[in-house]
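## Example pair
The file below holds two records. Each record gives the amino-acid sequence first, followed by its structure token line.
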Amino acid sequence: MEILLEEFYRQDLHTPQYIERRYFLDENSYQVNGISQSGKSALIKHTLLGYKKSSYLYIDCSDLRIDVPSLNETLTRFCNQNDITAVALDNYRGEIALPKVKQLIIASVDHYDYSELTTIKLYPLDFEGFLAFEPRYDESALNHFFQLGGFPAMHRVPSEERVRHIQRSLKNTLTEIGFDIMLLSTNLITQKISAYMLYERLKSTRKISKDMLYKNFEILVTQGYLHQLEKINHPRAAKKLYLCDTSVKNALSTQKHFGRLFENMVYLEMIKKEFTLFYDEEIDFYIPDQNRIVLCMPFGNQEALFKKIEKIEGFIITHGISKVEVVTMTNESSLQHPFVPIEMIPFSVWALTEGEEEAESDDLLPKGISFDQFLE
């Protein structure tokens, strides 16, 4: 094992065209969790490359040559002999013992209960992070975001290879059942779906037990490949289903539904900002600690919006909502309502301001016209 460790120790690390993200690792010890392709390896390598080469050791634990018992027996001693102060265990597995070094960094799709490690949850890029990869910020940037999604590596993959790149990544990372669940889920995004509903659909195409589906579905949700959104005050109700990245939808399905994809994209922006969210009937997203509602209407107009607001007036009053944000593709306006201010905000503005009121609005509805006047 020492021969292999010596090879790891002498290897040169590379992070081609690395672009800084909002996450960074200082001299403390960390556990970096995130789905495949979220940028864990690049973040770790970029951190290590800021150190003196002789002071760190990077190990990809997925290397088939690694014998775990031998590694556990040898690693700490090897670090002491070579004055290694920082060790990174990429693609970490729980059976690998943590070495005793000054700084330890592990990376995995799974979370491990190590109190001595600070946990960083790494998501694919949000829109703000995506813009750092763009040569210029104009109307084409949002179109690129729809096409590429949030996986950082996609910027280096030729356009004709991107779909196969995502397919291979998921195939290599997920179990066979897990991949089948992802395939099925791509056509069910933003819908109220339970694990039992997935089981009922999947059992018609393959032999599978209910327990096996439940187990694999829970793993996908825990790791972050799938997300669930709970209904407010109804924890037993069916949860809405979302994908980890909008590019997965295009890579695994030919079914087109822009409205659902747009809602998935809005959802991802909010969870990456660690908002606590719920849904309710006719309400896409409710943020209780901000008394805020977010609606998704990519191509909505005034008539559709006012009809929508009428349906949720009871919720607005009951829950003391202080603001309603309507995320659109390009429409922007400030609307008056007897109970709550309503803002129509283009996604490219909303995502960069976390839904807060920032820019002056153009007029979809003339200034000063109220909700009641419009209905008249």
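Second record, same layout:
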Amino acid sequence: MLIKACIFDAYGTLFDVAAAAREAAAEPGRDAFAGVWQKVANDWRLKQLQYTWLRAVADAHTNFWEVTQNGLDWALEASGLQADAELRERLLALYFELSAYPEVPKMLEALKADGFATGILSNGEPRMLAGAVESAGVAGVLDDVLSVQDVGVFKPHAKVYELVGERFGITPEEVLFVSSNGWDACHGAGFGFHSVWVNRAGEPMDRLPWTPAHVLGDLTTIPELAKSL
């Protein structure tokens, strides 16, 4: 068995980034937000990612919590909701309690039972990641949670991917790297990981110099894939 560790991106891979907006929209008295929550969720996520890339290339790093707030502020203004301070605070609070995708707990349990090391490699700020891990109830099946805060630059900088080898004492070829972000899965492949793109939305492959070796619709078969490599 070549693979020794299965490493996951957090947001959008293990944790549903749309959950905060979806749950807020279902709360009483949020009729205006209920009509646009999907747009806000999509805009929020897109701006969050764009700001990480722009800060990385400009050498203007900050913590992911600030980027998350900046992205939300843009998204709320784009939908005419910038004056709703209570909604903003509610959405930010819910981001600390993001739901895991349904298959995540059993998938991680299966990996641990099969003897694989497991971990998260995320742009997320440690405090945010701790909240999501606790809310999802998966702390007991993760060996570590690695944050870009330790290297001061966001993905896809190589310094981020290097954290895995430094922590687990393994080579890139011994890592199964799993991300729902196509660009992240591509860069992981370029770094030398066995890379998996979890393409839940059926999107086209990103046009980058590298492509992930595997494309899946969800995380259910990750344990079987890891054992087959």
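Notes on the second record: The chain has a mean pLDDT of 97. The chain has two domains: 5-15+100-228, 19-95.
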